[in-house]
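Dear colleagues,

As part of the handover before I leave the project, I'm documenting each prediction I ran so the next person doesn't have to rerun anything. This entry is a single chain, and its sequence is reproduced below.
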Amino acid sequence: MDLNKLADRLLPGDYPDLSFYEEKYPPRALPKGAEVTRLAPSPTGFIHLGNLFVAIANERIAHQSGGVYYLRIEDTDLKRKVEGAVEAVKNALRYFDIKFDEGAKIGGDETYAPWYQRERAEIYRAYAKHLIKIGRAYPCFCTEEELSALREEQTKNKEITGYYGKYAKCRDLSEEEIMKNLDEKKPFVLRLRSMGDPAHKLKFVDAIKGEIAVTENDQDVVILKSDGIPTYHFAHAIDDHLMRTTLVLRGEEWLASLPIHLELFDALGFSRPRYGHNCSLMKQDGETRRKLSKRKDPELSLEFYRKEGYFPRAVKVYMLTLLNSNFEEWYLKNPSEPLENFKFSVGKMSKSGTLFDLDKLNDISKNELARLSAEEMYDFLSAWAEEYGSEEEKAQLQAREKFLKALDLCMGTSGKKRRKDFVTASQAMQTLSYFFKLPERTDDYRFDAKTCGQIFDGFLKNYDFSDDAQVWFAKVKELAGSLGFAAEMKEYKANPDAFRGSVADVAEILRIAVTGKANTPDLYTIMQILGEEETRRRIKGAIS
């Protein structure tokens, strides 16, 4: 068979010699040991925790080695493409402080552009034409119906499904048969002519899992679809080579495709990058563990964390505890250090399933938010509300000075002991809402209406906004004593049956009237922030 003639018929036109692309995309001028890594999502509009997991690892490896981290968009499948998806990917990762050096919607060193696979179609065709000429690619004219029947036969025979061996019906077509099909304008795809033998095992050193054995590939996979656009397998091999990727970190679901990728690199005459397959994020579901699911688990989507208002650093800290086994110990010793100071190691990534625990993330989030100043917390809440907050929440943040006073109190920023009441921006805004509107009562009074009314009336009679905290509390104790409550806690503890309750019970009744809650920070300070008019209005409202 005249392979040059076949190549010109299948892919007509002049394509540059492959040396042209080697010169156009030269090896990167980087220090010795510098790694080039990438994130290469499809533009589906759904970016998830697994993407963030591998994005953090790739970013750390590239930047701490003095290398390059880039964003490539694998948009070969138009059916899955969602408008605005690339911008969504970039924004989601920017929220979590993932910095790319170059790539789609980012720019950077244009030497290795474009970063969209559909814009690189000519490059893939040039390499596909080369494979035809050396006998490593051939046209396949099988219809969808024929391929479906083939899969059914394989399933019935309990064989591996795919296009290989005796099932590769177009692999050995004669030149005459191929030309006849082309003359009849039958649509075709280009397939790799695999040279692998599934009886052979390859030893492969995975950057994360260590030495593993993989079966040689014998599948004649599609490399160019009927529209001339490459498949993921083919495009990624060419792009990783020409963009000079040194390390590919990806989910372990790609291990099944590894033999195909290794054969493609060899067939194309490329040096292989190193591959590392990280473990799936798991969730405890009753007595068993399972992979996080897009359908079942809202926390899989990165939009969940942005919408709820998780502090980006908190999420990143938690991801690092999952990514490297020694990070948690380092962070306990260095809680204020930039996260970039941690020496990330691929070798310390988990080799088995990683358990994702939302409760642990919430604890980390509490700690991280508690480290902020009131001003930093205000800025974080404002940025969140701008994108996700209600009009009411945005209006509350407009009262900046009042909001800062509320944060000072509720975070303990002006005292020695910091409170850890806030988990997310949405939860913080809900918690602080009683400073800005008459709250719904979430806790019940533990005394009858008559007793509560006596407390409200007695408090308003002697309430003076200008009183300092000591005078204010002295009046509350006096009121408690006049109504049969113990004014001093030690008296109540010594003989509880002698009293209706204690001064703490009186304060709780006032607290619920003013805030709707039985537990809040210092009630005197809350009343000072609310102001006299609002404090009186709420207690009068409680009376009615």
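The first helix runs from residue 3 to 10. The chain has 23 helices and 13 strands.

All the best with the project,
I.
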